[in-house]
Design goal:
Helix content is about 30%, strand content about 35%. The chain is an alpha+beta fold. The protein has one domain: Alpha-Beta Plaits.
Length: about 100
């Protein structure tokens, strides 16, 4: 299994919009070949921003890389583009391969 983790710090005034956009993305992502699971988790809240951790799980690294060049990927990007005005800081992207 291959796990992709994106970490965000989102300005509090945009939380509803951010979560709505990711709900839309997750619905479309279910159609992708090799896709297993999507999770969006809300974390620590400060006076200014809230942290989020988004995880997608894939059958393999290859399936994830194939998805990056698929119609599904471009459809998601087109319909729910990343709105970086929501962000308090630059998102962090990490990938993991399951060992055990």
């Amino acid at each position: 299994m291959f796990v992709v983790v994106d970490k965000f710090e989102i300005l509090n005034i945009y939380l509803f919009c951010f979560e709505r956009d990711w709900r839309l993305r997750s619905e479309k992502l279910r159609k992708a070949k090799g896709f297993i699971n999507f999770e969006l988790m809300r974390g620590k809240c400060s006076d200014i921003f809230t942290t989020y951790n988004c995880q997608t799980k894939w059958a393999s690294k290859e399936k994830f890389l194939e998805w990056l060049n698929s119609d599904n990927f471009f459809e998601i990007r087109e319909q729910t583009p990343s709105n970086f005005s929501f962000h308090y800081s630059i998102p962090v992207h990490e990938c993991y391969e399951q060992i055990i």
